[in-house]
Each structure stands twice: as structure tokens, then as C-alpha cells.
Design brief:
With about 325 residues, the protein is mainly alpha-helical. It contains 13 helices and no strands. It has one domain: Up-down Bundle (Rhopdopsin 7-helix transmembrane proteins). Bound molecules: zinc ion.
Length: about 325
């Protein structure tokens, strides 16, 4: 820990000493995040090292180790890319002059869930313990609204170039959810600080994939890490760290809808055949993921703080 402390604080000093405006952009942001993580997760105050404190500290270290392990395993695996038939969806029917109508129209679920989520987040903003928890939820639900447009655009004429606009907003939404979970279960300052960096990492994973498509070495591994690691991380955070709000099980229900969506995505054609060509697996994927987003908004609408705020009258009383 002393090594981590000295490294992070030395980097901040070096950046300030350099007085280099270009270096002070992204480097100072990364260094500030690192210092925030170090202060929040590994406080130097020895009085915090009671048994419960030690226990929480151990869990935080274990969480960081799992994160590092997931990143390492991803890049040790061989390159992976989409199957060649990825853009060949089961339901290609045209309706009202719109090609692939069901896969386009089913994105309405993301739009409704996203708008409802933004409204609930703003309407119940004083239900948050800390106002720095808001931006992650706005990014999450704003990402869902944009997913409705991006995914609709992609499904009108599915190809690699348009897939970027399908995946970028859903990645942004996922990074918002991940930051919101870090804020809730680990540390509000860390979640708040990590939010822009996580969104940048999500965007960079897609930019990297597009770059490898152009150079002929197609590699989807970073995007897969960005898609699936937050699922594991959210489960770990729910399991390892105590909640600050009621209705924590709603995260699990929302995740169940998302996992169902991924199953429907894989079973696009079998579902279409099993339903007598009524509805395809990919259409059900959109609807299921939309319900998952709605479930998170529903949770925000009805959850309560577990630690009640101190009444101002009680503070003012002699
Ligand atoms: Zn889709």
C-alpha cells in the first residue's frame, strides 16, 4: 500500500511540476482517480483497521484482484470476432414500409425505459445519499434512450459500420450502471471519478474493434471485456458489500432480464421457428433488455435509504 501511495502521489507531483498543459489533461485525471481510489479504499488512518474495517479492506483488495485477473485473462485469450453470419437476422419482414420492422420497432422499449429512468432520477434526486450518485444514472438512462435510435438505425440495414452506432450507446449505458454500482457499494467519490474514464474505456473498446476491422486483424476482445466484466463485477459488488438502499434485489432481477436477452440473441432463429415465425429471438432480446432497464428505473422510484438522514431540526436542537 505504501508503494501504491508513493507512486500515485509522485505522479501528481510530477504532473504539477511539469506544468505541461497537454499532460495535465488525461494524465492528471488518471492520477486524481488513482489518488482517490487509494485514499478511499486504503485509508492510511490505522484506527480504521478494526476487524470489520480489515474485512472490508480485504474485500476491496479481492475485488481489485478479480478486476486485474479479468483484464489479464481477456488479453491472454486468442483474438475473437463476430461470426460471419452475425448480421443475418431471422425476422427480415417489412411492415409499414420499414425493413426488418420487428427488430427496429422493438427498440421502443429502450426509449421508454430510458426516458422514465431520467425522469425518476431527477424527480427522486433527494432520495440519493449523495448528489454525486446522480450522473451515473443519467448516463445509464441517457444511454438507453440513445440505444433506441442507434439500434433502430443499425437494424434498418445491418452491417459492420452501422453496428458501431448500435453498440456505442449500450456500452455507455453499461458503464453508467457499473459506475452507479461502484458508487453505491464501494465509494461515491471513486464511482463519480471513474464514470468518465469508464465511458471512455467503453468507447475505446469499440474504436479499437473498428480499427482492427479496417486493418484486417478483427479483434472484439476489449469490447467483450467491457460487456461481460461489469456483469461479474456487479454480482461481486452485490454479494460482497453491504447496501445503502432498500430493494437491492432489483439489480438481480434487472440482470436476469439482461441475461435472458443475451440468450434470446443467441437463439434468434430457433425462437423464430419455435413461435411459428411470429417473433424472433433478437426482437425478444430488445424487449427483454428494455424491461431490464425499466426495472432499474422502477427500483429508483421506490427504494429508500437504509441510513436515514439526520433531521435539520434535530441538528439545530441544543
Ligand atoms: Zn439488436
Amino acid at each position: 500500500m505504501h508503494l501504491l501511495k508513493s507512486i500515485t502521489e509522485r505522479h501528481v507531483c510530477e504532473i504539477k511540476r511539469a506544468q505541461n498543459p497537454q499532460a495535465e489533461g488525461i494524465l492528471s485525471e488518471i492520477a486524481t482517480v488513482a489518488v482517490t481510489v487509494r485514499r478511499e479504499w486504503f485509508p492510511s488512518d490505522r484506527t480504521t483497521c478494526t476487524m470489520p474495517g480489515m474485512h472490508r479492506r480485504f474485500k476491496r483488495s479481492a475485488f481489485l484482484a478479480v478486476t486485474g485477473g479479468a483484464i489479464a485473462v481477456t488479453f491472454l485469450l486468442p483474438r475473437y470476432d463476430l461470426p460471419p453470419t452475425y448480421h443475418d437476422f431471422a425476422d427480415r419482414r417489412m411492415l409499414f414500409g420499414v425493413e426488418n420492422f420487428a427488430d427496429v420497432a422493438s427498440n421502443i422499449g429502450f426509449f421508454v425505459a430510458g426516458l422514465y429512468g431520467i425522469a425518476v432520477t431527477l424527480w427522486r434526486r433527494w432520495g440519493f445519499e449523495d448528489q454525486r450518485e446522480l450522473p451515473a444514472y443519467i448516463v445509464l438512462f441517457g444511454g438507453l434512450v440513445l440505444t433506441a435510435f442507434g439500434s433502430g438505425y443499425y437494424h434498418l440495414r445491418p452491417d459492420d459500420a452501422r453496428l458501431l452506432w448500435d453498440r456505442l450507446p449500450i456500452t455507455v449505458a453499461f458503464m453508467g450502471l457499473f459506475a452507479a454500482m461502484i458508487s453505491e457499494r464501494l465509494s461515491v467519490p471513486v464511482g463519480f471519478r471513474l464514470l468518465p474514464l469508464l465511458v471512455c474505456c467503453g468507447g475505446a473498446s469499440l474504436w479499437y474493434w473498428m480499427w482492427t476491422v479496417e486493418t484486417g486483424n478483427r479483434d472484439l476482445r476489449p469490447y467483450i471485456l467491457v460487456q461481460f466484466y461489469p456483469l461479474l463485477a456487479i454480482l461481486l459488488l452485490l454479494w460482497m458489500f453491504e447496501p445503502r438502499y432498500t430493494r437491492g434485489y432489483d439489480f438481480l432481477i434487472a440482470l436476469a432480464f439482461y441475461i435472458a436477452a443475451k440468450v434470446f440473441e443467441v437463439a434468434d432463429k430457433p425462437v423464430y421457428a419455435a413461435t411459428g415465425n411470429v417473433i424472433s429471438g433478437h426482437t425478444l432480446k430488445h424487449l427483454s433488455a428494455g424491461v431490464g432497464g425499466y426495472w432499474l428505473a422502477r427500483m429508483l422510484a421506490s427504494r429508500e435509504r437504509l441510513r436515514k438522514p439526520i433531521a435539520s431540526s434535530a441538528v439545530a436542537a441544543p
